[in-house]
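Friendly challenge for the regulars: who can give me the structure tokens for this chain first? No prize, just bragging rights.
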Amino acid sequence: MASSLRFKVALLIVAALGGAVVAAVIARDAGSRPLSLTTPSNGAAGKIAAFANGGSPPATVPAAVRAFMERRNASLEGAALADWVVLAASRLGRQSADVWLYPTTKGAACFIVLVGEQSGGCVMRFDRAIPSAVVVHRGTNVPTTVVGVAPRTATAVDVVVHGGGVHNALQRNDVVFWEAADMSFPPEGVDAVITRFADGTSIRQEWGGPAH
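First reply, four minutes later:
Bragging rights claimed.
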């Protein structure tokens, strides 16, 4: 059974990044050698906490993650910065899903979930239209799952489902992950995603509709 995947419409619109202003995220590798991740200052990658500690050793990056990176449209999103691929969260849910993140040369933050059939996406920047970037995934023997990434300024990412249930899906390292209780829950059962911030503001993304 092929996986079912719905993107928030705005996630597929890759915004052009203007200007030459850059921001640097400083980290250190295992040998305490300073590293610098340089990305456009308004790009999503500069707002992800997981990149603060540098990337994972190349030998530990699964082939499925490397294949995902190679398939992406580098002309729109930028080329993958392979040295900064990081296992941001692991063993999530009953299927023990792993979520990997990587930045691109144009400042995008990309995420891949490895559970059943892989899925993921890239976000160029966070704003009111895309306060957090998620996809709804369902695969063979994999229940409906909401997965993605949020900026480090988010304090909660609530998944709202049919019937009024609300589930905080924000995990460590800015990963968003929520898994339905069983296979009977359809992807269409996800009504909205609400991103909440430390200043008390929140933005609600209706699934398939505009943010407000």
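The radius of gyration is 16 Å. Confidence is low (pLDDT under 50) at residues 1-36. Your move, everyone else.
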